Amino acid sequence: MAKRTRLVAVLLLLAANISSSAMNGAGVLPQARPPPTHEQVQKAERLKNEANELFRTKKFTEALMLYQEAADMNPASAMILCNRAFAHIKLENYGQAVADADRSLDLDPHFIKAYYRRGIARLALGKYKLALHDFRTVARLRPTDTTAQEKMKQCEKILRLEAFEAAIRAEDQALASPIDQLRQDLEKMEVPHDYDGPRWDDGGMTEEFIEGMLEAFKQDKRVHKKYMYKIILQAYDMHEPLANIEQIAIDKGRHLTVCGDTHGQFYDVLKIFDINGRPSKENPYLFNGDYVDRYVIFRWRWLQPCKNDFLCK
Fold first, then answer.
1. Are the beta carbons of 147 and 135 closer than 8 angstroms?
2. Are 259 and 288 in contact (CB under 8 A)?
3. Helices (H) and strands (E) in the chain — how many of each?
4. 13-27, 71-85, 198-212: which is most confident
5. Could you tell me if 161 and 79 lie in one domain?
6. By residue range, what is the domain housing residue 297?
7. Which end of the chain has fewer CB within 10 Å, C or N?
8. Is 286 helix (H, G, I), strand (E, B) or coil?
9. Rounded distance, CA 282 to CA 300, Å?
10. DSSP string, 15-59
């Protein structure tokens, strides 16, 4: 239940970010917001204090929602954005935490807490060089901060290890990467004549293959591994160029169906499609969480790319 509540909170925040940054139907950027009034600043401060109390009692989701209200009321507060970044970190929304810390530092470039929290989020995302830069900034601005110094040492240790591993890999560049090796293996594979599952020729993905794959899965049958390898490779080719976080805009009059984590329940996903329709350009989905049936989702994304391809992730 707690995980579902957390997911709803994050989706609401994403919807708020989308609505605040999206262009209107005419393709015109919204006008800049006027500065908050004195009353709005005071109300935002009260909301922030209430959120701080929730945070202290480890009610991070509830605190996050109040920080969101406070930030909407007073978007010029570096402190509110920094606190919201901290709540995101506690909920493991590290990308959102980096975005909030960035905005906080845009407002106050000398805000030490924002550097530290961005460093923590970057460290969790595996962006060790960027995290090291943040922790060094904290250490420079506050030399007595032993926590920042410990984080600096942690990042430096990881970076040294990565450099060592890179040096070892460079010694044998003749070895193919796992993806290249998979492409080579794929060329040698043949589907036997007695295979009775769905077939996928070299002409490209078809809806017939996807429906056949779904039917095979319903009957607890397997799809030939050659086709699964092709799905993995083309999913890699689709996703490798994408950023970790992308801003998306939904045109006026369009809709987007957001699906949370189904915890590996294949038949639950099929039920969603039965109720809400198959993915298409006119019926886009945004899938979050761990999907045991991601092969099916990848296939639809390839067959029916949206205007903004990220919508069919």
1. no
2. yes
3. 13, 2
4. 71-85
5. yes
6. 178-312
7. N
8. strand
9. 13
10. HHHHHHHS--TTS-PPPPPPPPPHHHHHHHHHHHHHHHHHHHTT-
Residue 29 lies in a domain: no
**Residue % of the chain over a pLDDT of 90:** 41
Look at the chain and count its residues. 313
d(CA 151, CA 132): 8
Q: Supply 13's token pair.
A: 């925040």
| CATH assignment of the domain containing 130 | 1.25.40.10
Residue 131 and residue 65 in one domain: yes
Query: Which pTM does this prediction carry?
Result: 0.50
* DSSP symbol at 75: T
Distance of CA 175 to the CA centre of its chain: 31
Return the pLDDT at 174: 55
CA distance 203 to 200: 8
Read off the tokens for 209: 């293959």
Q: Which tokens hold the place of 183? A: 């492409």
Contact 98, 118 (CB under 8 A): yes
**Residue type at 103?**
R
